[in-house]
Amino acid sequence: MTRVVIVEDNESLALGLARSLEAAGYDVAVVGDGDSAVELVRADPPSLLLLDLSLPGRDGFGVLRALREHGVHTPVLILSARGQEAEKVQGFRLGADDYVVKPVGVLELLARVEAILRRSEPRRSPGVATADASGTPDPRPLHFGDVTVDPARRVVTKGGADVELTPREFDLLVCLLRRDGAAVARETLLTEVWGYKVPVPTRTIDTHVSTLRGKLEDDPSRPRHVVTVRKVGYRLDR
Asked: Nearest 5 degrees, angle CA 67-CA 69-CA 74?
């Protein structure tokens, strides 16, 4: 059974979340503070961590930072009442897979959980690789501006210097690159990069695009490559 750990100090909220996930078939454990969460997850990594930010002792960002520094790659969904863009960006930069602002409906939460678990399976996202006539993924480096992307090694350089991207930022970038300048709808990105089967209201894509621009554009406020297509989504101009 898929195991989910909830890190939430509000007992009534944690109980409600646990019941909803258990009803959907998940094995659920609940932890009420950050230090205990780090200890538990390091000892026995679950399939997914549902993480609040406002915790006693070590906060959610501290939990996430500690787990990633210790090489724990358990998928993390941040579930917090704190909805400022800066906090979302910080969460993604520390390695969160999704960020949901409370309150959230049960069906939306379950959809996000299912999507994270589905894309964490050991297989390549359909938006990340293309194949040649033999069906083998195309390993050739991709280029735009002074940026080089090596899909096989999952390495990105800008002007010859390595650029550190999160796994989701990398997958988003390659998905846009593979479209050769065509606009990609948000719904398509949610399906191919995030693994959602149905559209889910989210600013996750916009936040990831913002961080990509910050890392890869010469002037992120006036992007030349990762371009917004109004009322559609995004495209990548070489």
From this structure: 35
